Amino acid sequence: MTTTASERKLRENDPFVTQFEPFERAGATRGPAWVFPVRKAGLARFAERGFPTTSDEDWRFTNVAAVGRLPFRLATPSEVGGRDILGTTPFATHETDRLVFVDGHYEASLSNVGELPSGAVVMNLAGAIAGGVGDLEHVFGRHVTGEENGFAALNAAYFSDGGYIFVPKGVALLRPVQLCFVSTGAAAGVATHPRNLVIVEEGASATVLETYTGLNGVGYLTNSVGEVVVGDNGYLEHVRFQDERVEAFHVGTLHYRLGRASRCWAHSLALGSKLSRVNIRASLAGEGLEAVLNGLYLTRGEQLADHHMVVDHIRPHCVSHEYFNGILDDRSRGVFHGRILVRREAQKTDAKQTNRNLLLSEDATVDTKPQLEIYADDVRCTHGATVGQMNEDSIFYLRARGIGLERARRILMCAFAGEIIERVQDEAVREELDRIVWVRLEQNPHVKTE
Amino acid sequence: MSGEAEQRVLESKRRTVNGEREVLRNERPMLEIRNLHAGVEGKRILKGLNLTVKAGGVHAIMGPNGSGKSTLSAVLAGKDGYEVTEGEVIYKGMNLLELDPEERAREGIFLAFQYPVEIPGVNSTYFLKAALNEVRKHRGLTELDAIEFLALVKDKMKALDLREDFLKRPVNEGFSGGEKKKNEIFQMAVLEPALAILDETDSGLDIDALKVVSAGVNRLRTPENAQLVITHYQRLLSYIIPDYVHVLCDGRIVRSGGKELALELEQRGYDWILNEVVKGS
Fold first, then answer.
1. A414 and A328, same domain (yes or no)
2. Looking at the DSSP assignment, which residues form a beta bridge with residue B67?
3. Biggest alpha carbon distance in chain B?
4. Across B41-67, average pLDDT
5. pLDDT class of B265 with cuts at 50, 70, 90
């Protein structure tokens, strides 16, 4: 994409650019010397690229112009007071090591990390950067560079905080780690830029839950970036759960870098937000690894949920499976873009992609776009997408056994969502997600018979 | 409640007290189909069908392909898309055609499907427990919890040779043809319907499975319930012995008789009856 001089001029006056100076002056960029250039570079990239537009092929179906029109307001640390913030979040009663971020800022009083195996680190990223923990200078920004899109660039410039999880070689975390992001939604346009870094070293294993919820229903923005590295023979289950307020905007950019013979279960659930977009890139960088990208989106009203995936088969003998189901009601929209790239060297690749959509209303729409780009000759790649209504034969079968029409519809809807939730490996996590999704679908007024 | 309905309730209560089954047999029939005309997608299929089924009776409906056998079972179970243009169906004194499929099921009508539907993602235990509790609720019985339910179904599963993990699997998903048919009869055993309609239950069964399924059906036979066995072939009727055999041709029952009629059909085929009907008309 080329940028004209006038467009660049315009962006130089964009508050998302001009506000960097006051942000810097306010001391938000204090810290080790390497951080400031990272932020400056992110800002420069954003000034260059701006927010994506629908003329960008990767953003054809998702118009983010409304995000660009938001007033520029960086979220400041909120007074948590005695507010019951955790009560509004999923997994609140689960035994996890929990880091809580309110409006993108670490809230120690709500966080709780128990005893960890030797060498493991679970802490807030800003704290790790300030304290010189780990080799962050050389790890940070390596996999999400800001070149991906304007949002990732903006995150590099303005990131506040997020989770830092480090699991050293051969170590298994005992409990899931929860990175719990809560937006208070203090005013329209308030933006948080969470930043997460997860490193699971060779032969290590971890379960990470990343949740996004909101308190007040205004047009706030969450723009998160996550960098995830799994070493050789490592194991990671990562659940990304987005249930923002329905007035909010949510963009996430995630990069999984996976090593030889590793296994990675990456789940993405999108329930909330007026507009949500999750960019996932999985780099299959070692031989014989297995990656499952598993996702569910439930939309209604005017919601739009967009998943944009790139699975990059770099090395041979890797298996990648993508399963995404969507249930769409009212005038809501779903977008699924799944690109599978098989490089010349990646022989014996086994890549499978499925996107299934259940439309509950005649006005709901889905744009689904598989894209295979194959340079190796000995591979197996399949993809399939379906968009449809509920199966009438199944409904009749249930009714013929005495189950009412409304309940029959609910059962089938939950089964459709259940296909995805079933793949969650951690039993307690799976049950909680099942419960949340069940309750959400139960509330759906459109299964009721007229 | 209408006076007539009230009268029936009283009668049924009296029946339970006295256990007078003979009286029951001679009372009002369980199912009366009168001059039924029905079709699908504008096509006329049933053209004046009459049939009366009393409690305790096993009726076989036989007929060649396209005679209307599947339409009859679909209309009785309440499947969408079938249009009744004339006639009536009275079930236990109610106008059956006015009831939704689930209401018919709760009132005791059970259709064993010719092609049971696979429902991925719906656990068999969950499904059958939900169905049973809907039926029990309707009959004024308490709902069963998971433990009570499992206790109830365990023996019934064994009787039908069903594998132990069967209840943990999604409904019919990946089942063989025989397993699917066994599952239908298993559901029938659990739901204890008053009127069971077995639609081509023998199709796709090998002889061993046929014996197991038939034995299952026969065990469920009581003086209080009735069975409508719909089949193309006589084979099934060697195992499920009917009291009555009806021949369905071109949407009407053209001949009724005892179980020997089925054997005659097996030996001579359907053509001779068709010819007689043509001659007689």
1. no
2. none
3. 61
4. 94
5. confident
Q: What is the pLDDT of residue B18?
A: 43
Instruction: State which amino acid sits at residue A178.
Output: Q
When divided into structural domains, chain B yields a total of: 1
Domain assignment present for B20? no
CATH number of the domain at B168, please. Answer: 3.40.50.300
A109 neighbors A191 (Cβ within 8 angstroms): no
The set of residues, in sequence order, having a beta carbon less than 8 Å from that of B20 and lying 6+ positions away, is: none
Domain that holds residue A192: 72-390
Say if residues A293 and A254 touch (Cβ distance below 8 Å): no
Looking at beta carbons, which residues of chain B come within 8 Å of A400? 77-79, 101-102, 104-105, 110-111, 113
Check: CB of residue A267 under 8 Å from CB of residue A291. Answer: no
Q: Which residue of A has its CA nearest to B106?
A: A402
- Reduce the DSSP state of residue A144 to 3 states and report it: coil
Chain B residue nearest residue A399, CA to CA: B102
Per-residue pLDDT at B13 exceeds 80? no
pLDDT in tens, B126-150: 999 999 999 999 999 999 999 999 9
Residues of B in contact with A408 (CB under 8 A): 102
Residues paired with B255 in a beta bridge: B247
Residue owning tokens 């560079």: A145
Chain B nearest CA to A422, separation (Å): 9
Last residue of a domain, one of A390, A407, A423: A390
**ipTM > 0.85 (yes/no):** yes
Q: Which two tokens stand for residue A202?
A: 């060779």
Query: Where is the domain boundary, A362, A390, A418?
Result: A390
How many whole angstroms separate alpha carbon A7 and alpha carbon A3?
6
pLDDT score, position B21: 43
β-pair type (A350-359, A319-328): parallel
The string of pLDDT tens digits covering residues A230-251 is 999 999 999 999 999 999 999 9
Binned at pLDDT 50, 70 and 90, residue A386 comes out as very high
Whether chain A has a CB inside 8 Å of the CB on B137: the answer is no
User: How many domains does chain A divide into?
Assistant: 2
Residue A60 has pLDDT above 90, yes or no: yes
Shared domain check, A275 and A341: yes
Note whether A321 and A442 are same-domain residues.
no
Distance from CA of B271 to the nearest CA of A (A): 34
Q: Which residues of A24-58 are buried (b: 16+ CB within 10 A; e: fewer)?
A: beeebbeeeeebeebbebbbebbbebbbbeeeeee
What local confidence, expressed as pLDDT, does residue B1 receive? 42
